[in-house]
């Protein structure tokens, strides 16, 4: 099993994630691209000492970025996990 700190890179705090955390108890995490849902669930439960009921994942591809010349580069892609916590569980964002 992989180390939990290598699977979950950081928690994403945006307007949308804050709204979903308050209304539906869902939190956004930036995770390793090779991590699956079971590994993400175990990592979040171990790191934050909460009970996870559901995990959804989204793979984002990097965007094309134009450089100073006519050549194009690409930004890095990432994977986001939307973790729904069980009732009574909460992660303190402060």
Explain the overall architecture.
28% of the residues lie in helices and 36% in strands. A hairpin with a 5-residue loop joins strand 4 (64-66) and strand 5 (72-74). The protein is α+β, with helices and mostly antiparallel strands. It has a single domain (4-63, 75-85), classed as Alpha-Beta Plaits (2-Layer Sandwich), CATH 3.30.70. It contains three helices and six strands; from the N terminus they run H-E-H-E-H-E-E-E-E. The protein has helices at 4-7, 15-24, 37-48; strands at residues 8-12, 26-31, 52-60, 64-66, 72-74, 78-85.
Distance between the termini: 29 Å
- Main beta sheet, described? 4 strands, antiparallel
The CATH architecture is 2-Layer Sandwich
Shape category: elongated
Kindly identify the CATH topology: Alpha-Beta Plaits
Order of helices and strands: HEHEHEEEE
Give the full name of the CATH homologous superfamily: RRM (RNA recognition motif) domain
Unreliable parts: none
Tally of DSSP β-strands = 6
Number of domains: 1
Write down the Rg.
15 Å
In percent, how helical is the residue content? 25-40%
Describe how the helices and strands are arranged.
Layout: H1 4-7, E1 8-12, H2 15-24, E2 26-31, H3 37-48, E3 52-60, E4 64-66, E5 72-74, E6 78-85
Antiparallel strand pairs: 1-2, 2-6, 3-6, 4-5
Question: What's the short version?
Answer:
With 94 residues, this protein is an alpha+beta fold. 28% of the residues lie in helices and 36% in strands.
